[in-house]
Design a protein that fits this description.
heterodimer; A: about 400 residues; alpha+beta; Rossmann fold; 7-stranded antiparallel β-sheet; B: about 210 residues; alpha/beta; 4-stranded mixed β-sheet; 9 helices; about 50% helix
């Protein structure tokens, strides 16, 4: 299934400009620091922008991208654009960076947001700069205490009004200072559009921990949210969380069948007292999953993920980490089978994984479903790409022993 | 071996890195290494093979171009040496030209596309973002290298027995190796290299590769 037909990325991290067509399985290869992760992040950001920057496992933008927002935009530029061409739609995500002030393109939204935001909203956005307003906040606390004690006594209405007026001024002054801080702060706006219709504007600033909606459009009925999932060594999702998701979606049986078919000694997996236990052939008692190797756990995690997504997109970053080549065989089988109902973007350094995928695809007559995107760093740091079809790649590998991972 | 010997003899100070055409991963590793600049300055690289022109032009040449163009800011000279097998130079050059044109127009290889032009018998490919230039030339060997070596060495070792060439260059070489070189084919080929000093086609190849 190829939901995304084409990806275009401009000025995101180390990628100045890159464009490539997509198929059901897109293998992204290249040496370190050639932008493999940046491509996965870009796709995640653009697709998740249809769903308030969150994916099916609750991964959020702040789990994906670094806090140092300045480096999200290609050196010295102020704007980055990610465009995804779908069958009938086009998703555009603009990242607009501003060291201070705000870009004119989103001025109206931002000023409206600024006008309405209160210092009392700050904790909700995970702000860690409230201590800067300590003086104002202390005054407010003191006034509140006074108000509380005096209201019990019979104070004159005039005095109470005076106190309230004072508090209101303090609050206003705190809000003013807070808004000024916000305006002056380093900011990144994420502006997402579907077919040139604005979906949402999110703001990531140096003073808030997460990203906050500056303007979310009212539900647009045409928006078809695309199920999305990102598996990366950087994102530490607890396997129990994914297991529970499978249980709630009644997909566990489906996964068991697959695992039993592909791992001959696998019997069962159950949650006991909040911990996952695995039953293997010839074992009388199940073993806690934590006793199994990292590779087995990684394979389970990835096998759990694919059935969660129907008609959606799965992003795998270096799925081979900790895995024995035998498990890579199982994983490639899983990717190929699941590609019937979802689209994969897989970044890898594993030649074995690529070879397994090509071999299995060839056997099943599914070579057309694979694209290999090879990234390379050129003189001066420019990152270029080459697109190889699976047929081309296999031929090259066989005749001249090209290393498909590229260099 | 033949060109290794020829280049050693005639290109002073050059070290030659030799890669068979079915082990291109070795070239890729070299291109990906941290000492690429040093290697380019210090070594000549030779890719050889007897898997046919299609492999050399369609597979090896394409991989070399895609993996080198833009990797190094200065000019990189590539000389393609082909047996002509009785085909005219113009026809072989057109084959190479067609392949290079198709690579330069192939958006899957370079985007934006690389610039391509022909200048004074050389093909020039420039990286679209001024990140290096490849200068590609074609040299040919009359009939085949195998034939040239066999013919030359029959003349040197057994001029009275030139009839052995009638069974084909390969059989003639096998005969010479067995009768005069104790089964050491490499020695025969390396020895033959010294016999070609004045040959026009050898001079042409040397001129082409010593230009770098």
């Amino acid at each position: 299934m190829d939901i995304i037909k084409e990806v275009k990325i401009k000025n995101y991290k180390g990628l100045e400009e890159i464009q490539f067509p997509c198929r059901s399985i897109n293998i992204i290869v290249g040496p370190n620091n050639t932008g493999k992760s940046s491509i996965l992040e870009s796709i995640w950001m653009a697709i998740s922008s249809l769903n308030n920057s969150e994916d099916i496992l609750g991964t959020r933008l702040s789990d994906i991208v670094e806090d140092n927002i300045k480096y999200l935009i290609y050196q010295g530029k102020q704007e980055s654009r990610i465009e995804l061409e779908l069958e009938n739609d086009k998703i555009t995500l603009d990242l607009l960076y501003s060291e201070k002030d705000y870009p004119s393109k989103i001025a109206d939204f931002f000023l409206n947001f600024i006008e309405n935001i209160q210092i009392t909203d700050a904790p909700e956005y995970g702000s860690d700069f409230l201590p800067r307003f300590e003086k104002n906040l202390n005054r407010l606390r003191r006034d509140l205490w006074v108000l509380k004690t005096r209201s019990k006594k019979e104070e004159s209405k005039e005095e109470l009004n005076k106190l309230l007026e004072g508090m209101s001024k303090t609050l206003e002054s705190a809000n003013k200072e807070f808004r000024n801080e916000l305006i002056k702060s380093e900011k990144l706006f994420l502006v997402s559009e579907l077919n040139n219709n604005l979906i949402a504007v999110h703001l990531k600033t140096s003073i808030f921990n997460g990203e906050i909606p500056v303007s979310a459009m009212e539900e647009i009925p045409d928006i078809q949210k695309i199920p999305l999932l990102f598996s990366s060594p950087k994102i530490n999702k607890d396997i129990s969380e994914i297991y529970n998701k499978l249980v709630s979606m009644k997909k566990l049986g489906e996964v068991f069948d697959i695992l039993k078919r592909r791992i001959p000694y696998f019997e069962d997996i159950r949650e006991v007292d909040g911990e996952l236990n695995v039953l293997l052939e010839n074992l009388k008692k199940p073993l806690p999953l934590s006793f199994m190797g990292d590779g087995f756990e990684a394979l389970l995690k990835l096998s759990f993920m694919a059935p969660l997504i129907k008609d959606g997109i799965i992003l795998f970053e270096e799925p081979e980490v900790s895995m024995h080549p035998g498990y890579l065989d199982v994983l490639s089988e899983e990717i190929l089978s699941s590609s019937e109902h979802c689209q994969f973007f897989v970044s890898t350094h594993s030649l074995e994984l690529i070879e397994y995928l090509l071999k299995k695809a060839d056997k099943r007559g599914k070579m057309d479903s694979i694209n290999i995107l090879k990234l390379r760093r050129l003189e001066g740091g420019y990152i270029d790409r080459e697109i190889c079809t699976a047929i081309e790649a296999k031929e090259e590998m066989e005749t001249i022993k090209t290393d498909l991972r590229g260099f | 071996m033949f060109f290794d010997e020829i280049m050693k003899e005639h290109i002073n100070g050059n070290r030659i890195h030799v890669i068979p055409d079915n082990k291109i991963d070795k070239l890729q590793r070299a291109l990906g290494s941290n000492c690429l600049n040093y290697m380019i300055n210090q070594y000549a690289l030779m890719i050889y093979g007897d898997n046919g022109k299609t492999t050399i032009i369609d597979k090896v040449l394409q991989r070399v171009i895609v993996d080198t163009l833009g990797k190094y800011r200065d000019n990189i000279h590539i000389t393609i040496i082909l047996d002509d097998d009785g085909v005219s130079y113009t026809d072989l050059k057109n084959n190479v030209l067609n392949k290079l044109q198709s690579i330069s127009k192939d958006k899957s290889k370079f985007n934006p596309l690389s610039d391509f032009e022909e200048d004074n018998g050389s093909f020039i490919m420039k990286h679209p973002r001024s990140r290096g230039t490849l200068i590609i030339k074609l040299s040919t060997i009359p009939l085949s290298l195998e034939y040239q070596v066999a013919e030359k060495m029959v003349g040197v070792t057994c001029p009275h027995n030139s009839g052995i060439l009638n069974n084909g260059a390969r059989d003639a070489l096998k005969y010479l190796v067995k009768e005069y070189y104790d089964g050491n084919e490499e020695k025969l080929i390396r020895d033959s290299a010294t016999q070609f000093v004045g040959e026009i086609w050898v001079k042409e190849i040397l001129r082409s590769i010593s230009f770098r």
